[in-house]
Amino acid sequence: MKELALHLLDIAHNSVSANARNITIEVVEDTRSDLLTLVVKDDGKGMDAQMVQQVVDPFVTSRTTRNVGLGIPLLKAAAEACGGNLEIHSTPGKGTEVIVTFQRSHIDRMPLGNLAETFFTLVVGCPEVHWKFVYQVDDNQYEFDDTLVKQELGDVPLSDPLVLNYLRDELESGIKTLQASFSEIS
Amino acid sequence: MDRVKSLEDLKKLREQALEKRKLKTASGEVQIIVGMGTVGIAAGARETLKAILEFIEKENLSGITVRQTGNIGWDSYEPIVQVVIGDQPKVTYGKVTPDVAIRIMKEHVLNGQVVKDFMLEG
């Protein structure tokens, strides 16, 4: 994969497959400690300690169509190649948290990529999940929680063209504004 | 973000969407499913989905549900898109680039013609 935003989409889908009802994605860029942190937190079915250990192994997967899983091991390798790491905290019946860190300025670090597109894809494509996105750059933060949108829309589906337009705009401008204010400072 | 403004926007949006739905009812529910497993994402499924959503936006199509699913089980044919129109049988397409996705939307979803070149045999 070419961007971290695609990895986030992939990890978030693991949470969806684990029957999570609430999923939070956090992206934190800290220029002072030169760290980039990605967190995906869910309240899905969780894993026991043995499964957590296995899940970083490329030759283990919960799927039945084939015996190789790649998402987590790929991301772990990418993080470790940039002086970072990948941690998984999970409790059966409670949920899972995946935390990935990178040295932000590392030459091999994958670009963040299109966060707005990843968030947009998740909100529209998995409407049964309550999504919360937090993107933070140093002291500035953009947060999107879909609760309000869903409450207001009632039975109008998220894939209605007017809603698509609204959501795309909201996410793109929120993220762009944050990134613009940041590049002015630095 | 200006929360209050966006709340008003949403209310207006809901009214508009409901109004429009009254005009288009009996056209039959369309469901589009995009495979978003690791392999699908790596093969470009996010861009395929993006093209589909942009088409819906541009053509102002209501009554279409877009869903994502994990691995569909045809790894070498990713990105995979499935189309279900009304009570017709599900059609599965493979190697759906954004361009192919737009063809599927135009020919299959809008005109009822299955795009045979990209159909996967079940």
UniProtKB/TrEMBL annotation, chain A:
One of its GO terms (molecular function) is protein histidine kinase activity. Its EC number is 2.7.13.3. Gene3D superfamilies: Histidine kinase-like ATPase, C-terminal domain. The keyword Transport does not apply. Residues 1-106 form the Histidine kinase domain. It catalyses: ATP + protein L-histidine = ADP + protein N-phospho-L-histidine. InterPro entries: HATPase_C_sf, HATPase_dom, His_kinase_dom, Sig_transdc_His_kin-like_C. The keyword Transferase applies. GO terms for biological process: phosphorelay signal transduction system. Keywords: Kinase, Transferase, Two-component regulatory system. PANTHER family: SENSOR HISTIDINE KINASE, SENSOR PROTEIN KINASE FLES. This is histidine kinase.
From TrEMBL, chain B:
Gene3D superfamilies: Glutaredoxin. CDD domains: TRX_Fd_family. It comes from the Bacteria. This is NAD-reducing hydrogenase subunit.
